[in-house]
Amino acid sequence: MKTLIKNAILLDMVGETPNIRKTDILVNDKIIEKIESKIDENADEVIDAKEMIVMPGLVNTHTHLAMSIFRGYKDDRKLMDWLENAIFPVEDKLRPADIYWNSLLSCIELIKSGTTTFNDMYFRMDKTIEAVEKSGMRGVISWCITDDSIKDKPEMTRKYFNKYNYKDSKIKVYVSAHAPYSCNPETLKLCVDLAKELNTGIHIHLSETMDEEKTIRERYEQSATEYLNDVELFDVPVVLAHGIYISDSDLEIIKNIKGGISHNPISNCKLSSGICNVTKLRENGINVGIGTDGIGSTTTLDMFEEMKMAAYLQKVNTMEPTSINAYQILKMATIEGAKVLGLENEIGTIEVGKKADIILIDNNKTHLYPENDICANLVYSANGADVDTVIIDGKVVMRDRKILGIDEDEVKEKVDKIVKRLL
Amino acid sequence: MKTLIKNAILLDMVGETPNIRKTDILVNDKIIEKIESKIDENADEVIDAKEMIVMPGLVNTHTHLAMSIFRGYKDDRKLMDWLENAIFPVEDKLRPADIYWNSLLSCIELIKSGTTTFNDMYFRMDKTIEAVEKSGMRGVISWCITDDSIKDKPEMTRKYFNKYNYKDSKIKVYVSAHAPYSCNPETLKLCVDLAKELNTGIHIHLSETMDEEKTIRERYEQSATEYLNDVELFDVPVVLAHGIYISDSDLEIIKNIKGGISHNPISNCKLSSGICNVTKLRENGINVGIGTDGIGSTTTLDMFEEMKMAAYLQKVNTMEPTSINAYQILKMATIEGAKVLGLENEIGTIEVGKKADIILIDNNKTHLYPENDICANLVYSANGADVDTVIIDGKVVMRDRKILGIDEDEVKEKVDKIVKRLL
Q1: Which band of pLDDT confidence, cut at 50, 70 and 90, is reported for residue A256?
Q2: pLDDT tens across A6-15, in order?
Q3: Do the Cβ atoms of B326 and A73 come within 8 Å?
Q4: For strand A402-403 and strand B31-36, is the pairing parallel, antiparallel, or unpaired?
Q5: Residue numbers in B near A69 (CB within 8 A)
Q6: Which of A8, A51, A119, B396 would suit a FRET pair with A222, their CA atoms being 20 to 30 Å apart?
Q7: Is B76 on the interface with A (CB under 8 A)?
Q8: What domains are there in chain B, each with its CATH number?
């Protein structure tokens, strides 16, 4: 199967500064085979990308797909009130089939707003994997382990790791330790050992709130980062979600990790968690990707909204408008996110030999006009609705904003029944 | 001319809490004549609003329409570097016809993202008015006065005030004093006298940056607010744009103003100006509307983006998620914005007798599903592209996202020529 993209305005996300050029792109099966100004070759499908910006699919480095039913549910509350009185009681009642339909709804929203890869931590991930395979997305999956819910999760992690541990698999299985405050040293050690055994990484929440840091200090007389370091969690690749309250001495530890930090600006604002100092992390050479968190806390999975917010927050938090620029934000949402997930050799840029995870953005919109700076337009003016076509692993999964191979109305009907039953 | 909107999901924005109901709405000429569950009446146009949220048009309380060509232009810079090396040299070269086309481009973007009323301060506003009349929008217009550019502006203000000072006029003319740091007491006194003479209001920037407060204190040994109070500027209705560095003693003055404050969250972040304490202003009974500022600083005129940002910033700045909720944000963007502009008797809610400034939002989108909380969905998940139909002063100006009566391609071509000549 060959797909030829003609007349693209390509933003390849390869260099330290933007490289934008008119070109054709040939995709052969899963791989980007050729990027040349004019490609005359027979292809099974030809996509005319005139007036389209072509760039790598966005990488969402932290989310919980199955939480889609919680959009706006008992919103604008204090975190613990919201969790204990809105979310937890309902989560206990979620059935395996619910996880499937909720996850599929999230996949649709992700694809429609230009995301091709995500990193998810939740429970009954076997059902999420089914939805992800149905959608055609690429994802990192992990079964969330806490002291109170270990049960069969290591075994499921091992089973699904082995199932998807083959060349060119779109599903990658990580180990998930929920957070320093919900995992004691024994639980964390179990996670580290499992990750080492499988030669995979760990997905964990870290330093999301000031309270969390306080709890850990009271309990272990050290910071959350030091606590994780002591149980040798950083021996394996990690995705650290949030990372807001990282001190200078924590930074010395985190500087040396494999993987990186997932910055979730909207969730962090909406839950009044705080502002992550992304500028400082990046200056210290740490990979920082962008994540949406679950719909429950952010109400949206649109990575364009997260990109805006990531830029605005850094500029106002540092009181320095040059602290981050639009291209750097786009890098965080693509290749740097890929690095956080250890996928930088497969995705995150448009280069010959990489997997064809490609999005086409309709540039013929009034709000993207004039085009003084395409990167500024993409970050500060575009939104998910401008994404026209999405290709994942060489396969077209959305064309002219129509999701292929999924009956959207059916998904909504199914989710509607879950909402009526539970909320 | 009668327009009947059938089967609407109406969010009228009248009460202190959301009132959402299924209903029909009859518009007679410029006015909302009837809101009833079933209206059987002959109308010239019937709009089926099934699966549409119907709400008042958004009110943008501070912008500079003619700056549309600066979208993304020399972006991500320090404020003074950007102003002195990017914006000012080009502004000096803007021709009257440029102001027309640039303003018309902004009107298109505003309408396409659901804004029906704006408040603009710039120069050659006669040309902006032409564009606004072409677009069908409602607006408050003012000729920006500084010490260095008084010239014919009082005369133009007087002339156009009289021209548009008739019943049911969609154009309202204000006096504009640029800012405390660019207007000495004599200039401000001239503005106050002119506003009193015409019985109109004053549009002014106030406390946008810390530097501005410092400058005023060095110059007049008082705060910017005290300085304006001393020249009796608050004798007339005012729109105070930004209002970031307002002290507790300033608050005592501002509590008593007519009009209100225009909060511009994206501009304030993007230029690293700071965060306005909207929560505190509202607790003190001050009207706070939302504004986009010019495209130069925000890169977008989409009020849905500003609503998100206004909510996120308050929640993270106060570290209290309950500091503001989605409905309060929607009020700021509609009826409270109308109050800031002194238009609350005409627009800002959907009520019988009010002007028909109405937007229809397509609720049949995956990212607005499920509907646990329509207000949360509108603020945290919707964006301008979800606006389907826009009615201003009883006239349909956008239908199925197509702007009526303006050739969008012509506007882009004209602006393109201006961009090529100047940037």
Answers
A1: very high
A2: 999 999 999 9
A3: no
A4: unpaired
A5: 370, 372
A6: A119
A7: yes
A8: 2-56+354-403 (2.30.40.10), 58-340 (3.20.20.140)
